[in-house]
Specification:
alpha/beta; Aspartate Aminotransferase, domain 2; binds pyridoxal-5'-phosphate; 3-stranded antiparallel beta sheet
């Protein structure tokens, strides 16, 4: 599944702590270290990072309510369930949304964004879903920034990185992202319950003049308490310890290697799917996601049935097709704590479930193609395997 993802053993153990005093004198040691390291993770140099006790959706709301005002015109695009939900939230919070609908399987339309921004300089914010988890589509966030610059726009750039951060490169500072959203249960390999919001200096300034009501998610309340290492309310302390372990693990592996591993694993899954004669929902390679593949089922086969069979017979959860692609796709999440063998297992389960659901696939074709790919693609193929203390199963 593309989330919640596997929780590594070292993270699961870090979560298992006795309850402690979140106003204790040494509590800031934990909090200040996390806030500093999250800035490194998001490549946010001059702004701030907030951690909210909520799922990712909470950080969407925090980003909007702290920086915009009712009636502000914003530019968004919709090409999957998650980008759809963000549009819905923006409308319900009273923003004047210019929504570009794109076929499900493609991503943020850069030329159209530039055109809209040139035509309407009053646009206050531009939104981009970096990785659309429903369709397995990754968009070009640096390209969105270029389109905004080309149009001379001074709008704020909002990016949903819930299923990209810590798996696919997202560079907040370099790409001029003003608000970068993520959640704990995807690339960060934790249970749901924390949302993380990277905020630029420009977005912090916007918070001073924005007129939308906010309370629980107020940047100012967070800043006042975070500056001294505390929260304005009771934080989920075990999750913060889990986040510490998760970040340590990511930094141990090295972010460049984390991104390379996700790319390698995703390529293997794609090679396997192609060998089965199946197509991705993503309509062209430029959109392929390194964290989730949405796979189109052949005509006459029900994607929901594939998921049900995989779940009941083979004890494997695939992501179901959501909304417009319900029944038409099933999704393999390949992000977080996993390796080549995890992906081969997913392909094997997919082959069996597809065959059982009536698809004409030859068992083993996808697995064999991915095995070939992984044998050739692994950069450390000749090195001895070092057993990682971090995991109870195979090393990364
Ligand atoms: C999972 C996800 C969300 C929603 O996050 P919740 O934690 O369920 O609130 C938002 N956007 C994307 C791209 C996601 O993958």
């Amino acid at each position: 599944m593309p989330g919640p993802t596997n929780v590594p053993e070292v993270v699961r153990r870090a979560l298992n702590v006795p309850m402690e005093d979140h106003r204790a004198p040494d509590f800031p040691d934990l909090v200040l270290g996390l806030l500093a390291d999250l800035k490194i993770l998001l490549r946010n140099e001059t702004g701030r990072v907030f951690i909210y006790p909520s799922s990712g959706t909470g950080a969407w709301e925090a980003a909007i309510t702290n920086t915009l005002s009712r009636g502000d015109r914003v530019l968004m695009s919709r090409f999957g369930q998650f980008s759809h939900l963000w549009v819905d939230m923006a409308q319900r919070l009273g923003l004047d949304v210019v929504c570009v609908d794109v076929e499900w399987g493609a991503g943020v339309p850069l030329d159209e964004y530039e055109r809209q921004l040139v035509a309407d300089p009053s646009i206050k914010a531009v939104f981009a879903t970096h990785n659309e988890t429903a369709t397995g589509v990754t968009s070009d966030v640096a390209g969105v920034r270029r389109a905004m610059d080309a149009a001379g726009s001074d709008a704020l750039l909002f990016v949903d990185g819930v299923s990209s951060v810590a798996s696919i490169d997202l560079r907040q500072e370099e790409w001029g992202v003003d608000l970068a959203v993520t959640g704990s249960q995807k690339g960060l390999m934790l249970p749901a319950g924390l949302s993380i919001l990277g905020v630029s200096e420009k977005a912090l300034q916007a918070a001073a003049t924005s007129a939308m009501e906010r309370c629980y998610f107020s940047f100012q309340d967070m800043i006042t308490t975070n500056d001294v290492g505390y929260f304005p309310y009771t934080p989920p302390v075990p999750l913060l310890h889990g986040l510490r372990a998760s970040i340590d693990r990511l930094f141990d592996e090295g972010l460049a290697e984390v991104f390379a591993r996700h790319h390698r694993l995703a390529e293997g899954v794609r090679v396997g799917i192609a060998a089965l004669g199946l197509d991705l929902c993503a309509v062209a390679p430029e959109w392929y996601s390194d964290t989730v593949s949405a796979i189109r089922v052949p005509p006459g086969v029900d994607g929901a049935q594939v998921c049900r069979i995989a779940y009941h017979r083979y004890r494997t959860s695939f992501g179901a097709g959501l909304s417009e692609v319900a029944g038409k796709v099933f999704r393999i999440g390949h992000l977080g704590d996993l390796n080549e063998v995890s992906c081969l297992a997913a392909l094997a389960a997919a082959e069996m479930a597809l065959a059982d659901a009536g698809a004409r696939v030859r068992l083993g074709d996808g697995v064999a193609a991915a095995q070939d790919f992984y044998r050739n693609a692994h950069p450390q193929a000749d090195e001895p395997v070092a057993l990682s203390a971090a995991t109870s199963v195979a090393p990364r």
